[in-house]
Amino acid sequence: MGAEICDSTDEGIYEMKKPLKLIEGEPISRPCVEGQALVETLKGAAALGLKRIQVFCDFYLLYEFVTGKLLPDQQKYIDIMDQVNLLRKSFTYCEFSLILRDDVKHVFRLAREAINSQISKLETKTKSPYKEGSSSSSSSMSEEDDGEVYRIHFKGLWSDERVYGPGSSNNSSYKIVTLAGVGSAIYDSTDEVIYEMKKPLKLNGFPGRVWRGRRWLRL
């Protein structure tokens, strides 16, 4: 997942990239990944004490859900929207806008980096460089409402990745694992990123596969 929060002058004040935890046994879908990315982003904005936010989304279906123009017809989407609506109560102003894919390149990169961090962790058996809840900030945030509207960009991604064991070559056995990540950033009124957070999305219930001989073996 990737997300970015900006202030009213397009200054980035917060960025986040983290792995997403999907529901065990549930098929992966873009509404689920993007929806959970939004939930994580709103949690981050609320934790910063922000009161007025404008959230930008490049996924039309999710935009239709959050604006009430379309009602979700599956329970998993309803549950995500319930979380979103509950988190919206943390803010005195919370609006959503639809933007183009090209306008979220920065948080797309953050989400991709969150996935890459998981690949490195699986291949080296070491801790991911992006700790759960880790963040960086270029300015202190006040819990009081300063009247400013902060811009938030976010992105959720997932992909099937080929992961090799330690010391293996391209011809060795490997496994295919499904990984997801989130990235977000906050901008202030001077268009400066003032806060950045990076975390991984752990996929439970999605086993990997190993190529041996001429067939796939499920792990």
From TrEMBL:
Coiled-coil ranges (or none): none
Domain RNase H type-1 stretches: 28-114
Pfam families according to UniProt: RVT_3 (PF13456)
Record lineage: Eukaryota, Viridiplantae, Streptophyta, Embryophyta, Tracheophyta
Name of this protein: Ribonuclease H domain-containing protein
GO MF, one example: nucleic acid binding
Species whose genome carries this gene: Helianthus annuus
InterPro entries: RNaseH_domain, RNaseH_sf
